[in-house]
Amino acid sequence: MIHRPRRLRRSPALRALVRETRLTPDNFVLPLFVCPGDGVRREISSMPGVFNLSVDEVVKESTAAYESGVRSIILFGLPESKDELASGAYAEDGIVQRAIRAIRRASPELIIIADTCLCEYTSHGHCGVVRGGEVLNDESLELLTRTAVSQAAAGADLVAPSAMMDGQVGAIRAALDDADFENTAIMSYAVKYASGFYGPFREAAQSTPEFGDRRAYQMDPPNAREAMREAELDYSEGADILMVKPATVYLDVLKMVRDRFDLPVAAYHVSGEYALIKAAAQKGWIDEERVMMETLTSIKRAGADIILLRARSYQGASNQVILPGF
Fold first, then answer.
1. Of 145, 156, 76, which Cα lies nearest the Cα of 110?
2. What's the rounded Cα separation, in Å, for the pair 161 and 239?
3. Which is it for strands 129-131 and 134-136: parallel, antiparallel or unpaired?
4. Is the Cα torsion angle 48, 304, 145, 66 positive or negative in sign?
5. How far is the C-alpha of 263 from the C-alpha of 259, rounded, in Å?
6. Fewer CB within 10 Å: N-end or C-end of the chain?
7. C-alpha span between 243 and 217 (Å, rounded)
């Protein structure tokens, strides 16, 4: 007998009927960059279609995304000024805190995630307290916990610690609980590699380190077993969601995390991954939409329950978007 798998590939309807991996906008998180000012929509040159947005514009973008089916956003802040202790990250009237409150008023049902880090707010561009050219782990935890509590107080549904400081999830969980924010969830950047794919993000967030790099605290790309240790620590400290970042070049690690842990798993399709697809599409070398969908499907197939991804602006879209487009 000849086996004929092609029988179930003969038409779009048949292929859809037996499709093993499905993408839905409910599983997507849209990253947004909030900057000072009013009416600001400043395109990021290395990420065509992505903008730095003032609070009023980020409210419009969030509302448009929600109406298109995307139910979750994550906010990154560009403060008016920076200092060595990242005071803008945990200020009550910080840029992200103001954005959270404004978005919550406009879209009460939208899931708001706040990136909990310090690099966008420090004058030196590192993710913690720096002394003598070294990023100090335990002193940085105090600032990270203050940031998380401030974000929760503003109305964030989840906080997302991304500094890769040892013990950050446990410290943040304890601080949230002590401040009566026990229902605020933690989406941990549990496995965050020191990647070259972050370049466009650093332009967008103006967070390039003033000296050195972040390899002393972000993960070394050749290591996969170490990633399981990082994820296990965050799991034991109370993380509600574990994240792998970047996504496509670490699909093997993503699958390892998915197979080992019973928490929801997120993957971050980062700025450089977005930029590569956009640049190749602009050259006419690839079919942008097809490659985008294939890329996202690979991330979901590897085990991601949640995908964080860049997307072109939703404002002015001519129709309802089923999936976020590049």
1. 156
2. 10
3. antiparallel
4. positive
5. 10
6. N
7. 16
Burial of 30 (0-12, 13-18, 19+ CB in 10 A): buried
**What's the CA gap between 21 and 93, in Å, rounded?**
42
- Write down the residue that tokens 């990250």 correspond to: 89
CB atoms within 10 A of CB 237: 18
The verdict on whether 278 is a catalytic residue reads no
- At residue 320, the pLDDT reads 40
Residues linked to residue 28 through DSSP beta bridges, in sequence order? 307
Catalytically annotated residue among 82, 192, 278, 300? 192
**H-helix or E-strand spanning residue 257:** helix 251-260
Express each pLDDT in 9-40 by its tens digit: 999 999 999 999 999 999 999 999 999 999 99
**What does the pLDDT look like over 270-322, one tens digit per residue?**
999 999 999 999 999 999 999 999 999 999 999 999 999 987 666 655 444 44
Fold of 22-309: TIM Barrel (3.20.20)
pTM for this one? 0.93
Question: Whole-angstrom Cα distance, residue 298 to residue 295?
Answer: 5
Phi, psi of 135 (to 5 degrees): -85, 120
Q: Which residue has the tokens 């985008």?
A: 292
Q: SS3 helix, strand, coil % of the chain, rounded to 5?
A: 40, 20, 40
Strands 134-136 and 158-161: unpaired
Between the alpha carbon of residue 22 and those of residues 19, 251, 295, the distances in Å are 7, 17, 13
The HSE-up count of residue 269 (CA atoms within 13 Å, CB side) is 28
| Residues 247, 202, 95: CA angle, nearest 5 degrees | 105
261 phi, psi to nearest 5 deg = -120, 150
Residue type, 118: L
3-state secondary structure of 266: strand
Question: For this structure, is 300 an active site residue?
Answer: no
Using CA atoms, how far apart are residues 205 and 79, in angstroms rounded to an integer?
Answer: 10
With a CB cutoff of 8 Å and minimum separation 6, the contacts of 98 are 34, 55, 154
